[in-house]
Amino acid sequence: MRDLLKQTPSQTVGPYFAYGLTARQYGYPNSQIADGTLADETVSGTRIRILGCVFDGEDAPIPDAMVEIWQADSEGRYAHPADGRGSNTGFRGFGRQGTGTDSRNRFLFDTVKPGPVGGEAAPHINVILFMRGLLSHAYTRIYFADESARNAADPVLASVPAERRATLLAQPDPSMPGLYRWDIRMQGERETVFFDL
Amino acid sequence: MSDTAGGRDWQSHPPYLFADYRSTALRAPTRPLIPIKHCLSEMTGPVYGHEAVAPLDADLTRNARRNGEPLGERIIVTGRVLDEEGRPVRDTLIEVWQANAAGRYVHLTDRHDAPLDPNFLGAGRCVTDEKGRYRFYTIKPGAYPWANHANAWRPLHIHFSLLGPSIAARLVTQMYFPGDPLLAYDPIYLGAPEGARERLVSRFDLAMTEPDFALGYVFDMVLRGRGETPFESRV
After folding, report:
1. Contact, A35 vs A26, CB < 8 A?
2. Are B114 and B106 in contact (CB under 8 A)?
3. Is residue B144 flagged as an active site residue?
4. What is the least distance, in Å, from the CA of B73 to any CA of chain A?
């Protein structure tokens, strides 16, 4: 085996990431590369909104987390050269939101529902979570509760203990078409499943 | 799935729970992480290249000027981004943010009683070149107090965010300065394992220093590798 170079250690994003990574959202004068709106009306697919909160071990909403999402387009294609299935619908697939601008510290993503990316994978959104107090970022996934047949065949969901799978399911909210609720819990009985990628 | 490269090396990264860093107590996941077999979802990631960077984005000494130059010591921060196998990580977006020379962040909730600098924002971006190189001009950040423990001070540091070639390679970290006496007391720095945390300390380099202008610091970073298995077989 060849000697590998050693990975640079992760460090916390800290409490002051806002003007560096999410400047526009927080009202700073500089720009940001991505925000909570992944898809405008020109992007094809079923429009969805993901709304949620990040809770700490005392069930308090975390006001200084940053949530990033990465997803395929409505056809299940990623806007990345490693996805060799031709060009995607023009949808970039990346969103980033801090939890410090909503009065209830929620994050909100307006996007399209991803298609299945291939194999037996059910439609899902990849999530990367950063915050003060998190020295290494955490990975999780959003699946959709109204995709029970595909979810049942998904190998990643199958690798999660059955009693914890619900933490990965975004629930449709009947108050608005396309609205899904999905919270992240860092600890406790309903601690969200985090993955070792 | 590759076992030789591409996994998150927990010998290098800090644990979630690190008692000396108090904020980890209620925020650290407590259950074991569930291993995931890499498929397209993990082997792809957001692509932001040169179009995401404006000409002054990599010069923090100029990108927020209003009526003059920012105060403090001008520095150059440069280095290479490689993967574990030593290959350059090309065209990857780096975002940086930092305190000003007085140890004050522009962030609205930073209440540290040190002056803001009207000519310094402390945020910038750049993209690595074909050899994985990057380069920023900035002002050496100051130390600042924080509430973690009695008389707690953060060492001088610059925050780095790298998108990397895939979400599995995503990295957010902090660069420190050589010889900083505060490193020995900082639970964030010390949260990274011994033998790994030293990689977070930049080195002063006279060759990177621009005469009569700015001192040069070199900070190389290593992201997770891709592994060798073609991704098609792993979908």
Report:
1. no
2. no
3. yes
4. 21
8 Å CB contact between B137 and B196: no
- Nearest residue of B to residue A132, measured between CA atoms: B23
Q: Do B122 and A20 touch (CB under 8 A)?
A: yes
- For A62, the token pair is 């975390």
Fold that domain B22-234 belongs to in CATH: Protocatechuate 3,4-Dioxygenase, subunit A (2.60.130)
Give contacts of A31 with chain B, Cβ < 8 Å.
Answer: 54
| Cβ-Cβ contacts under 8 Å, A34 against chain B | 46, 48
Token pair recorded at residue B94: 């780096």
CB of B172 within 8 Å of a chain A CB? The answer is yes
Assembly ipTM: 0.96
Q: Under an 8 A CB cutoff, do A94 and B46 touch?
A: yes
Vertex A83 angle, CA A81 and A87, to 5°: 75
Nearest C-alpha neighbor of B45 from the set A36, A82, A35: A82
Q: Which of B40, B122, B196 sits opposite A9 (nearest CB)?
A: B196
Q: Where are the domains of chain B?
A: 22-234
- Residue at A35: amino acid letter: D
Interface contact B167-A70, CB threshold 8 A? yes
Q: Are the beta carbons of A79 and A88 closer than 8 angstroms?
A: yes
Q: Nearest residue on chain B to A8, judged by CA atoms?
A: B222
> Looking at residue A43, what DSSP letter applies?
S
Closest C-alpha to B171, from A51, A137, A74: A137
Residue B39, classed as helix, strand or coil, is coil
Q: Exactly one of B38, B104, B125, B154 is catalytic; which is it?
A: B154
The torsion angles phi and psi of A66, rounded to 5 degrees, stand at -125, 125
What digits encode the pLDDT tens for the residues A114-169?
999 988 899 999 999 999 999 999 999 999 999 999 999 999 999 999 999 999 99
Q: In one letter, which amino acid is B48?
A: Y
Q: Is B38 one of the catalytic residues? A: no
How many residues can be counted in chain B?
Answer: 235
Cβ separation of B47 and A15 shorter than 8 Å? no
Q: What is the pLDDT of residues B89-101, one digit of tens each?
A: 999 999 999 999 9
Query: What is the phi/psi pair of residue B181, to 5°?
Result: -65, -20
Question: What are the structure tokens assigned to B176, written together?
Answer: 């420190």
The reply to whether B107 belongs to the active site is no
Structural domains of chain A, ranges and CATH numbers in brackets: 35-185 (2.60.130.10)
